[in-house]
Amino acid sequence: MDKEYRYTASAGTSALPAEQAAGVLRNTYGLLAMSLAVAAATAWLAMASNMAPMNPLIVIGVYFALLFVNAKLENSAWGILSVFGITGWLGFTTGPLINAYAQIPGGTELVTLALGMTAVVFIAMSAIALVTRKDFSFMGRFLMVGLIVAFVAGLASFFFNLSTLSLVVSAMFALLSSLLILWQTSAIINGGETNYIRATVVLFISLYNLFLSLLHLLTALGGDD
């Protein structure tokens, strides 16, 4: 990865030269590709061992702990390993969920469809940002508030077993994750984000939430949720 783009802190909304912004984007996509490979490997490991789904509170607790570590290390070489820690953990804990979905009638096809739709949304949102080069930083506050509301609603649906609310939460996360991909890509190419480690985490989590949300919605529409 290009030395001059490593471990730089965010420069707010100040514009970067086009060449530097391209370097940040290139490094982000490179690390994202490796992160997806790590997540796929750990998910396969969990699926192959027929591991039972973990307690969601444990999954969330470890996830936030890893995010905290990543935030502390994002400006150093150790930040890359912390990214793999996050993606590996999410992949490992998602493997049993994929196994569970695959057990329902047509489940394998639904998983494949959700993956395909996630890829299409990522390409579409990234293309919009890259082609228009519009600054979507104005969406930042809306996305943050929306994610907080969706997270709290998700906890409520889990604790009170509210299936309808769960579907609403999935729809919210699908929309917010799609917009987050657009927002983060725009921030990179317009110089609002210069730390490719942080950008990779945002994009990976967006893809992760988008995939699970679409899978939940597709399963519900199929009458098997």
Automatic annotation (TrEMBL):
<comment type="similarity">
    <text>Belongs to the BI1 family.</text>
</comment>
<dbReference type="Pfam" id="PF01027">
    <property type="entry name" value="Bax1-I"/>
</dbReference>
<feature type="transmembrane region" description="Helical">
    <location>
        <begin position="53"/>
        <end position="71"/>
    </location>
</feature>
<feature type="transmembrane region" description="Helical">
    <location>
        <begin position="138"/>
        <end position="159"/>
    </location>
</feature>
<feature type="transmembrane region" description="Helical">
    <location>
        <begin position="29"/>
        <end position="47"/>
    </location>
</feature>
<feature type="transmembrane region" description="Helical">
    <location>
        <begin position="195"/>
        <end position="218"/>
    </location>
</feature>
<dbReference type="InterPro" id="IPR006214">
    <property type="entry name" value="Bax_inhibitor_1-related"/>
</dbReference>
<keyword id="KW-1133">Transmembrane helix</keyword>
<feature type="transmembrane region" description="Helical">
    <location>
        <begin position="110"/>
        <end position="131"/>
    </location>
</feature>
<keyword id="KW-0472">Membrane</keyword>
<keyword id="KW-0812">Transmembrane</keyword>
<protein>
    <submittedName>
        <fullName>Bax inhibitor-1/YccA family protein</fullName>
    </submittedName>
</protein>
<keyword id="KW-1003">Cell membrane</keyword>
<feature type="transmembrane region" description="Helical">
    <location>
        <begin position="78"/>
        <end position="98"/>
    </location>
</feature>
<feature type="transmembrane region" description="Helical">
    <location>
        <begin position="165"/>
        <end position="183"/>
    </location>
</feature>
